From TrEMBL:
SUPFAM superfamilies: FYVE/PHD zinc finger (SSF57903). This is Inhibitor of growth protein. Residues 165-186 have a biased composition (Low complexity). The PHD-type zinc finger mediates the binding to H3K4me3.
């Protein structure tokens, strides 16, 4: 049940309360006025009785005392009725207070249940999201592991070919160029499909461009070359050259010597 419904039902139950309270207070005031009037009359009769105590006959005295006693009894009845009305008024108000407390307790319990359900749903959603991310990370790790192993195998195979002699390519043919060739590294061009390829951070890089192996590559014949392998396009080669070939850096070093 919503807050508005609780409030609406409670206000409906209070609709007749002011009228009932006003009626009880009016009756209590009327009973109090009657009791006060009787007490004044009793005081007057008591004064007269005391003034004429020695003059009146015993029968007359007895009659006056009985009359005063009856007035006392009547005033006591008015007082008892007023007390009963006060108790009824208290119980009437207390009944509505108890109902209000009960409605508030039920409303708070409903709010707590909704909060618990919302928290449980949120927790389940978070757990499901965490599991999904964990599975996705595990899948990505497996893919990276497979790609890294494949790249490492290709690199090892290329190096084995280099040790056996000659130049190597990463996926096709190899070639050598005559010594003395120079290339401007600022004019290096790369195929668009190669630049768009995702790069494995674990895969080694080569050439002046510091990229992974692709296409036709040539090895520098200087055994101390720090780079070793170069892409054909990066060093200006289009066909398989003849003779020994040295990279631009090693060519400059040889000229200086």
């Amino acid at each position: 049940m919503t807050t508005a419904l609780y409030l609406e039902h409670y206000l409906d139950s209070l609709e007749h309360l002011p009228i009932e309270l006003q009626r009880n207070f009016t009756l209590m005031r009327d009973l109090d006025a009657r009791a006060q009037g009787l007490m004044k009359e009793i005081d007057k009769l008591a004064d007269d009785y005391l003034k004429n105590l020695k003059k009146e006959l015993p029968d007359k005295k007895k009659e006056q005392l009985m009359h005063i006693q009856s007035l006392f009894n009547k005033a006591k009845e008015y007082g008892d009725d007023k007390v009963q009305l006060a108790i009824q008024t208290y119980e009437l108000v207390d009944k509505h207070i108890r109902r209000l407390d009960s409605d508030l307790a039920r409303f708070e319990a409903e709010i707590q249940d909704k909060a618990l359900n919302s928290s449980r749903i949120q927790e389940e959603t978070v757990n499901a999201s965490k599991k999904g991310r964990k599975k996705l990370k595990e899948k990505e790790k497996r893919k990276k592991g497979i790609a890294g192993a494949s790249s490492e195998d290709e690199t090892k195979a290329a190096r084995k070919k280099q040790k056996k002699g000659g130049s190597v390519t990463s996926s096709a043919s190899t070639g050598v160029v005559g010594s003395g060739a120079t290339v401007d590294s600022s004019n290096i061009g790369h195929p668009a499909d190669v630049l768009d390829m995702p790069v494995d951070p674990n895969e080694p890089t080569y050439c002046l461009c510091h990229q992974v192996s692709y296409g036709e590559m040539i090895g520098c014949d200087n055994p101390d070359c720090p780079i070793e392998w170069f892409h054909f396009s990066c060093v200006g080669l289009t066909t398989k050259p003849k003779g020994k070939w040295f990279c631009p850096k090693c060519t400059l070093d040889r000229k200086k010597k």
